[in-house]
Amino acid sequence: MTKSQPKYRIIANKILENIQDGTYPLHEFIPKEIDLADKFQVSRPTIRQAIQILVSEGYLARRKKSGTWVQSTKMTQGFTHMIKSYSDEMGEKGVIPKTEVLNLTKITATLEIQSALKLSVDDTVFALTRLRFADEIPVVLVTSYIPTKYLPDLDQHDFTKESLYHTFKDHNLALRHASRELEILKADETTAALLQVSLNDPIFYFHTITYLDNYAPVEYSIAKYRGDLNSFKIEINQ
């Protein structure tokens, strides 16, 4: 720490020390801005800048109308370069996964879904929307569309306990290839509420098409990852 550092950076470092030594425990709220300003004898705008640094670095998160709390640093996801179930990937990181099923219904494929899954006008799909957690923190909101012709009894499965990719495997549907497109968008009201972020916070927005051995598309998914909790590892082989 040097005297040339801005005051808000010095305060951010002191707050980070309190996080690392357990003064401010993981998943607990830190003191309010006014209390921190009094503790460090600085203005509230300085405290606000210090907190924003730690939010952007992934140490803190804001919960609307509640306060600022300590979170784990960003999780590096292998989602971009492998086909693996969320539960398996979280388990390998030592994180406890949890899934809430928000919707599982059979619908007629829209034009977007028809195009992605190479379906006809009257073809039906299952729409499965899940909110995925890591250590009780909502991390990703994902909707998957699966042609009913591949898994006609999909709606009989309990995806709070079962893995969709394991279900594919159990039905001899081998996943061999995936195509993913990434955008950075702002969280709308519904997404912000479910992922417990603020309106217009940045989110990673993935469109994924997953294919079988014969390159027939078997799943089209739209995933919204929290920008403050996730980073993505991309491998390129020559």
From TrEMBL:
InterPro entries (UniProt xref): Bact_HTH_transcr_reg, Chorismate_lyase_/UTRA_dom_sf, Tscrpt_reg_HTH_GntR, UTRA, WH-like_DNA-bd_sf, WH_DNA-bd_sf
Give the superkingdom in one word: Bacteria
Which UniProt keywords are given for this protein, alphabetically ordered? DNA-binding, Transcription, Transcription regulation
MF terms in GO:
DNA binding; DNA-binding transcription factor activity
Is DNA-binding found in the keyword set? yes
- Give me any GO biological process, just one: negative regulation of DNA-templated transcription
Q: Which SMART domains match?
A: HTH_GNTR, UTRA
Report whether Membrane shows up as a keyword of the record.
Answer: no
Cross-referenced SUPFAM superfamilies: Chorismate lyase-like, Winged helix' DNA-binding domain
Any Pfam family the entry gives:
UTRA
Q: Residue limits of the HTH gntR-type domain?
A: 5-73
Protein name, UniProt field: GntR family transcriptional regulator
